[in-house]
Write a structure and sequence with these properties.
mainly alpha
Length: about 150
């Protein structure tokens, strides 16, 4: 498993854990009626705002720990951090996946708002489309490295 593969796997795992937690929190908060008032979007934003730094810190710590553990178990040398044209191509493929999901989510949220749904629904669509875009980018990069082209 290459260094890039390991990083993508950690990112996928952190993405699944964080967004799974967000879904559980949203469902629990909705069941408790916390989104019923006029400040529903504010409550949602306060709940979601800490997710971004937690996901970043989780990904960094997970990557470091996973790479150290992998090196200990497999007795491999320090990984190469050289970036070549292939790495740049794979990163561009991931960026395309993020843009597609983010754009689709933004358009879907506007359509949803135009048909009278709440701003909370629109924000959830935007958030989860970006989260799915991030997951898709990691999966595209992982598949690209596995294929080799």
């Amino acid at each position: 498993m290459t260094y890039q593969d390991r990083n993508n796997v950690v990112s996928i795992i952190v993405n699944l854990l964080v967004n799974g937690y967000i879904v559980m929190q949203l469902l629990a908060m909705n069941a408790a009626g916390q989104f019923d008032g006029p400040d529903a979007v504010n409550v949602w934003a306060r709940m979601v705002i800490w997710v971004i730094p937690i996901a970043i810190i989780g990904t960094i710590l997970g990557t470091i720990l996973f790479n150290i553990g992998y090196a200990i178990v497999t007795h491999t040398e320090k990984p190469s951090f050289l970036v070549d044209e292939r790495d740049k191509l794979f990163d561009q493929r991931g960026i395309v996946a993020v843009v597609i999901f983010a754009a689709a989510g933004f358009i879907l949220s506007i359509v949803t708002l135009a048909f009278g749904r709440s701003a909370l629904v629109g924000f959830n669509i935007i958030y989860f489309s970006m989260a799915l875009g991030s997951m898709a980018a990691d999966l595209v990069k992982f598949a690209s490295y596995r294929r080799g082209y």
